[in-house]
């Protein structure tokens, strides 16, 4: 579907995303008292990119190299049987693993909370973190599970008919968060 | 495509999706909890009419790592010995709610027939002298892991091509993936229609070896030989066996493969089979991963992810 057919407008542009991530990086440092035992795990594809960006910022601010990786949740989804089998994303854990550490899960959009539930299950199979926190660039509401984010880039009230699309430089050639209203046909 | 019956019906994209999925799943084999919840509540039946060690165990391990329920059925000790037909056996399994049937059968085409009788997915685990698609997939996967590519790779498949379902599946799949296959065998051990296969044919192993990146040795299938295809085992071994001298003629990065089980001393010498450039043991481990990928892509969603539009 093209942007012409649907009304799309950017809710966040490049500089906004930049500022939001900078703030989240500071908040992680503050809440975890210096991010000593933190591991950043992104949910592919864009969550993994965001996790890397957060790690870069933390290194910039405090000179600390936080272990960063990705955790694919496809095999743990609860809606697998509703759609054709999907290709898998990449799971890359830091060499020291997640045992005893504070894992910060990173995703681009927090919506129903089902992705995060799947991520918690996946995490359970790769180790036993001391604590798990959640960072998201956009929280668009409409939770279907008792899950909330610890770090939010932007709270974005949406209707269920709308779509939120995150574009990132590394994968999409530009930074933007679009709110897409689907026209009734 | 609900089934995996022939390596020839896989498009390049399908084959690459399977190999890439296997690549991701290989990481699961490295962790302490090797199980994934993906196929919970699905039933996979292993229907084996022919003896098999690695393929049956490999499919069983693959299904169990994806949390599917596995029912193993071997013709020995079942109602097949009372004369039950393949169709009746299939309908019985269907009634028990099998989501997938993995079948190994001595008759070429049995999986194809089975697919018309059951609603679940049918996976061909070797039918007569016809095809063994998951073996070809795991071979391609092993080559790509060792050598980093498949495009333009020169692969020699040596030995009993006539009786080999592995050779046919490999020729079809490797051709799709851009590798160049040369079959090397005595004229008596080549099928009649071999000139229609997408590959080269040679009778001279020594000429082919120095140009090959991969040498795949096939087992001489003595149990299927009811006529004399070569004068003696010694003569076969001298002309088509991979021994130390021939191995030394390979270039330094070339690898040696064998689908197993091996006749050590016949088509391959023990020394070559155990060398670090042999992938024979690796192939077994890769088999589980590749079969997990196939089962996931066929059963993991509302419809299969390979085969494009149904």
Automatic annotation (TrEMBL), chain A:
> Might you give the EC number(s) for this enzyme?
2.4.2.9
Q: Spell out the molecular function terms from Gene Ontology.
A: uracil phosphoribosyltransferase activity
Query: What InterPro entries does the record tag this protein with?
Result: PRTase-like (IPR029057), PRTase_dom (IPR000836), PyrR (IPR023050), PyrR_bifunctional (IPR050137)
In this protein, which residues make up the domain named Phosphoribosyltransferase? 10-160
Q: Which domain of life is it from?
A: Bacteria
Pfam families recorded? Pribosyltran
- Give the catalysed reaction(s), semicolon-separated: UMP + diphosphate = 5-phospho-alpha-D-ribose 1-diphosphate + uracil
Spell out the CDD domains in the cross-references. PRTases_typeI
Q: What's in the keyword line of the UniProt record?
A: Glycosyltransferase, Transcription, Transcription regulation, Transferase
> Which EC class is this protein assigned?
transferase
Short sequence motif named PRPP-binding, residue ranges: 103-115
The GO biological-process annotations, alphabetized, read as: regulation of DNA-templated transcription
Question: Entry's PANTHER family?
Answer: BIFUNCTIONAL PROTEIN PYRR
HAMAP family reported in the protein's UniProt record: PyrR
| Family according to the record | Belongs to the purine/pyrimidine phosphoribosyltransferase family. PyrR subfamily.
The record describes the protein's role as:
Also displays a weak uracil phosphoribosyltransferase activity which is not physiologically significant.
Provide the protein name: Bifunctional protein PyrR
Q: Which organism is it from?
A: Planotetraspora mira
Q: Gene encoding this chain?
A: pyrR
UniProtKB/TrEMBL annotation, chain B:
GO process terms (BP): 'de novo' pyrimidine nucleobase biosynthetic process; 'de novo' UMP biosynthetic process; amino acid metabolic process
Specify the Aspartate/ornithine carbamoyltransferase Asp/Orn-binding domain's residue ranges. Answer: 151-298
Keyword Transferase assigned: yes
Q: Which UniProt keywords apply?
A: Pyrimidine biosynthesis, Transferase
- Show the catalytic activity: carbamoyl phosphate + L-aspartate = N-carbamoyl-L-aspartate + phosphate + H(+)
Q: Does the entry feature the keyword Transferase, yes or no?
A: yes
Read off the Gene3D superfamilies from this record: Aspartate/ornithine carbamoyltransferase
Superkingdom, taxonomy of origin: Bacteria
Q: EC number(s) per UniProt?
A: 2.1.3.2
Query: What Pfam families does its record include?
Result: OTCace, OTCace_N
Tell me the function of this protein: Catalyzes the condensation of carbamoyl phosphate and aspartate to form carbamoyl aspartate and inorganic phosphate, the committed step in the de novo pyrimidine nucleotide biosynthesis pathway.
Could you identify this protein by its name?
A: Aspartate carbamoyltransferase
Q: Which organism is the protein's source?
A: Planotetraspora mira
């Amino acid at each position: 579907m093209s942007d012409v057919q649907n009304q799309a407008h950017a809710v966040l542009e490049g500089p906004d995303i930049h500022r939001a991530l900078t703030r989240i990086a500071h908040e992680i440092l503050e809440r975890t008292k210096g991010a000593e035992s933190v591991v950043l795990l992104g949910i592919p594809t864009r969550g993994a990119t965001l996790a890397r960006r957060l790690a870069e910022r933390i290194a910039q601010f405090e000179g600390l190299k936080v272990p960063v990786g990705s955790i694919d949740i496809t095999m743990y989804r609860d809606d697998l049987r509703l759609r054709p089998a999907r290709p898998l994303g990449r799971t890359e854990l830091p060499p020291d693993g997640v045992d005893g550490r504070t894992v910060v899960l990173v995703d681009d959009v927090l919506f129903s909370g089902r992705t995060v539930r799947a991520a918690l299950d996946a995490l359970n199979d790769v180790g036993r973190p001391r604590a798990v926190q959640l960072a998201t660039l956009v929280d668009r509401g409409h939770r279907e599970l008792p899950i909330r984010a610890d770090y939010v880039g932007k709270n974005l009230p949406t209707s269920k008919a709308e779509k939120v699309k995150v574009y990132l430089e590394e994968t999409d050639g530009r930074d933007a968060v679009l709110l897409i209203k689907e026209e009734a046909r | 495509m609900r089934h995996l019956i022939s390596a020839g019906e896989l498009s390049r994209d399908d084959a690459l999706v399977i190999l890439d999925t296997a690549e991701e799943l290989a990481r699961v084999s490295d962790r302490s909890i090797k199980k994934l919840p993906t196929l919970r509540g699905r039933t996979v039946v292993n229907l084996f009419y022919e003896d098999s060690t690695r393929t049956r165990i490999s499919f069983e391990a693959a299904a169990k790592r994806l949390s599917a329920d596995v029912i193993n059925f071997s013709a020995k000790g079942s109602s097949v010995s009372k004369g039950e037909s393949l169709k009746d056996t299939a309908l019985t399994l269907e009634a028990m709610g099998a989501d997938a049937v993995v079948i190994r059968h001595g008759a070429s085409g049995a999986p194809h027939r089975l697919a018309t009788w059951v609603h679940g997915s049918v996976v061909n685990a070797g039918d007569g002298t016809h095809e063994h698609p998951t073996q070809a997939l795991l071979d391609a996967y092993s080559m790509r892991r060792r050598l980093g590519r498949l495009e333009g790779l020169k692969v020699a498949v040596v030995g009993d091509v006539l009786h080999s379902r592995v050779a046919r599946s490999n020729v079809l799949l490797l051709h799709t993936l851009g590798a160049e296959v040369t079959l090397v065998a005595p004229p008596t051990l080549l099928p009649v229609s071999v000139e229609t296969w997408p590959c080269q044919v040679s009778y001279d192993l020594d000429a082919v070896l120095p140009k090959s990146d991969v040498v795949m040795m096939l087992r001489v299938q003595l149990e299927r030989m009811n006529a004399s295809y070569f004068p003696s085992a010694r003569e076969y071994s001298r002309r088509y066996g991979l021994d130390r001298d021939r191995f030394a003629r390979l270039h330094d990065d070339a690898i040696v493969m064998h689908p197993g089980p091996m006749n050590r001393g016949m088509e391959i010498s023990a020394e070559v089979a155990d060398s670090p450039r042999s992938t024979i043991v690796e192939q077994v481990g890769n088999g589980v991963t590749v079969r997990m990928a196939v089962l996931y892509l066929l059963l993991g969603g509302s419809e299969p992810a390979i085969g494009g539009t149904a």
